[in-house]
Amino acid sequence: MTAKGKVMRVIVIGAGGGLGRALVNEYLKRGASVEAISRQAEPADLPAEARWWQVEGTLAGYQQVFSALGDEAMQPDVVISAIGWLHQSEWQPERRIEALTMEQLQTYFEINASLPVLLLQALKPLLPKSHPCTLLQLGAKVGSISDNQLGGWYGYRASKAALNMLYKTAAIEFRRTHKALCLAVVHPGTTDTGLSQPFQQRIAADKLYSAEQSAERIAKVAEGLTPAQSGGFWFWDGSPLPY
Ligand SMILES: NC(=O)c1ccc[n+]([C@@H]2O[C@H](COP(=O)([O-])OP(=O)(O)OC[C@H]3O[C@@H](n4cnc5c(N)ncnc54)[C@H](OP(=O)(O)O)[C@@H]3O)[C@@H](O)[C@H]2O)c1
Question: Which helix (H) or strand (E) covers residue 11, if one does?
Fold first, then answer.
């Protein structure tokens, strides 16, 4: 429910991933109506309160869904993008400079920075100008430049740092036209999903969170944010992270 007692309208993008799916469930638990957008097919156990949109994974594919929602005059209260990429088969995070390739670096930037900000561009016509709306992209603490003590993971770190800059820049622009909008990048904490799976052996058991636990925390952060905080980078407990 929103502060005005209406059913909360939520869009989850990247809804087929570990955190994306858990966020769909978390918002359903909170009584929201959820538009779930994913490249994957609709899960058989999707509750009726959620609507699943299967897309191609290109910007045009997402745009089609946003314009269909616009035709229904949908004005979201919360939009969360759980899109992100760290590894796939032969491509692992680069530990040494010798491992860097143009193709892998471009892929990191494309999925972790360019696609999220272009989705924000595509979402603009849907975003309410006067009623409160929070638009949150999942980022990563390793994208903090000032917090980087360990090195490694060049492309993932740099693309998540670029995401922070793109969101901060957009927040300054949107502040003029969308006064009740809050743009945010949130670090979910190390969460047990396919993305973190190959790296979990180095994580203490009490520092590896379930997707359900992280989704609950992310929704709580979204709930607590105000338009005055737009453009921030946040830890899963709602405390600010340095860029
Ligand atoms: N898990 C962690 O420990 C952790 C830690 C810090 C930050 N994060 C961030 O949290 C977010 C969610 O991660 P996760 O752990 O849930 O990972 P995940 O299970 O791998 O889900 C990521 C989702 O991103 C979407 N995606 C990936 N490549 C894409 C592409 N080329 N085009 C369009 N969409 C693409 C997919 O959504 P669909 O399949 O629905 O299309 C995919 O399922 C990411 O931004 C990640 O960087 C995760």
Answer: strand 9-13
Q: Which two tokens stand for residue 67?
A: 């314009």
Helix (H, G, I), strand (E, B), or coil: what is residue 134?
Answer: strand
In this predicted model, what pLDDT tens digit does every residue of 124-145 receive, in sequence order?
Answer: 999 999 899 999 999 999 999 9
Q: How far is the CA of 130 from the centre of ligand 1 (A)?
A: 31
Q: Per residue in 36-58, pLDDT tens?
A: 999 999 999 999 999 999 999 99
**Tens-place pLDDT, residues 102-112:** 999 999 999 99
10 Å CB burial of residue 125 (0-12, 13-18, 19+) is: exposed
List ligand 1's pocket residues with C-beta within 6 A. Answer: 14-20, 38-40, 57, 82-85, 111, 138, 140, 187-188, 190-191, 193-196
Please give the number of the atom of ligand 1 that sits closest to the Cα of 17. Answer: 43
Closest CA to 33 of 6, 67, 61: 6
Task: Pick the closest to residue 49 from 30, 34, 27 (CA basis).
Answer: 34
Nearest-angstrom CA–CA distance, 31 and 37: 18
Q: How confident is the model at residue 3 (pLDDT cuts 50, 70, 90)?
A: low
**CA separation for the pair 215, 198 (Å, rounded):** 21
Report the C-alpha gap between 207 and 200 in whole angstroms. Answer: 10
SS3 76: coil
Rounded Cα distance, 171 and 27, in Å = 24
How many whole angstroms from 176 Cα to the centroid of ligand 1?
A: 31
Taking a C-beta distance cutoff of 8 angstroms, is the pair 94, 152 a contact?
A: yes
Statement: 9-234 belongs to CATH 3.40.50.720: yes
